[in-house]
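Section 5.1 Outputs to date
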Amino acid sequence: MASKESFDLERFVPFLVNRVSARIASDFVRQSRQKGIRYRMWRVLLALWHYGEMRPIDISQRTNIEISTLSRILVQMNSTGLIEKKKANKESRGQTIAKLAGKGAACVDDLLPLYQRTEEAALVGLSEGERMILVEILTKMFINLSDK
């Protein structure tokens, strides 16, 4: 077991990543709540906006939202007109595809600039090179922790 003297919580990467992530989410949620968009919904909207229509399992993998939780979110988003769901194809047994609806695309158009400002605020003082290195490191960390 690590001793208190040899363990520096302020330099412990999981703790730092969580703090940054929570702060970014918190700042964004304050602004998005006015539009009725919760943070997990936002992640789904962004994924559909960026990648196009997807099966729920693919959305789950892209957003890191558990499939059971995602299913409930997709039902709510469909009922509020943020997304549309359709059958994947005639041969698929009940598989659905989700795609961004007009209302969802409008939310992304409205909220993405706010999210980008939050990102910019978090990165103040970092050079372009440092920003690129940060993205590379975070991407490698995610891959390291992904199910293979």
